[in-house]
Amino acid sequence: MKTKKILEKDLKSQLFDVKLGDFNGDGNFEIVVCSEDGRVLILSDDGEIIHELFISESKPIWDIELYDITQNGKVELISGGMDGLLNVFYLNNSKIELLWSQQFQSSVSGFFIDDINDDLQFELIAYGLDKSLRVLNLQNGNLIWGQLFESGIGTVKAYDCDGDGQIELIGGGNDGTIRVLMEKMAP
After folding, report:
1. Rounded to whole angstroms, how far apart are CA atoms 46 and 158?
2. pLDDT at position 184
3. Do the Cβ atoms of 167 and 123 come closer than 8 Å?
4. d(CA 122, CA 135)
């Protein structure tokens, strides 16, 4: 089988994640990538660099996510990396601005978005080598609840583990422990 190359662009750094989303609200998807040298690049579908964010001085950005947090038809950009910063950016006219930021004591290992407390509001679940698991308000970055592990956290997933209709978080620690956590609801 032959393949057809649609786009090739050398961005001069190792890339760790790539996402597609309508960042500027024009109805077309942009390509968003994060890199080893601390940059996040937003490219048009033909490979032209539209925006280049220097988020961290020579420290990798591991993970990015695109989500329409403000419900305005444009996705916001969430990034996390070795510098311990979890950032949420938005496009204001043609300028990219910071919506909110959360500082970890060490590298952000990963994050994802889910409605884990069944309130029809999505939360941002983030975890890092600083031993913390954080459930954050997606709108403003405020801590809803968190959990410390004895060692760094390698992975976290959201599942209804016991079939009761409530989402639990399953975290795997770098010390070999696994924990199943859920938000304690008020009586």
Report:
1. 36
2. 60
3. no
4. 10
